[in-house]
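Key result, reporting period 2: structure in, sequence out.
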């Protein structure tokens, strides 16, 4: 059996704001609206990766502090060609970095982490080799 990444599905309190983060900040394109189990959401394409976004339903149980480390989710990893340029641009836009650019332990990449909307963690990765 071969498995490959198909999509990421985000649940948020501000669907418009989350969609704008991915489209205006990260360059995703709007694909369309979609019904996710009775709740209207949106589908975006981030350079070949599908991102599904829908608002929290009243029936959803979201544990307190879910934007922090919880089983099953830690961060979204995005590859960039120039980490320093991405870092500078995102910092100018007011995003907070929890880890500024640094070489990975293996030395094969540079990484940085920042907080996106609603506390989602985003890792930027620039391959060096």
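The corresponding designed sequence is given below.
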């Amino acid at each position: 059996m071969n498995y490959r990444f198909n999509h990421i599905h985000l649940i948020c309190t501000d669907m418009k704001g989350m969609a704008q983060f991915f489209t205006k900040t990260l360059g995703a394109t709007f694909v369309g609206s979609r019904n996710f189990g009775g709740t209207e959401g949106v589908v975006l394409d981030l350079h070949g990766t599908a991102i599904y976004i829908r608002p929290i339903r009243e029936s959803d149980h979201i544990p307190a502090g879910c934007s922090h480390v919880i089983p099953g989710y830690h961060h979204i990893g995005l590859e960039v060609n120039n980490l320093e340029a991405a870092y500078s641009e995102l910092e100018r836009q007011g995003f907070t970095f929890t880890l500024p650019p640094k070489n990975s332990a293996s030395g094969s990449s540079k990484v940085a982490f920042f907080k996106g909307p609603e506390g989602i963690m985003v890792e930027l990765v620039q391959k060096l080799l």
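The chain has two domains: 1-58, 74-129. The chain has a mean pLDDT of 87. This case is discussed further under Risks and Mitigation.
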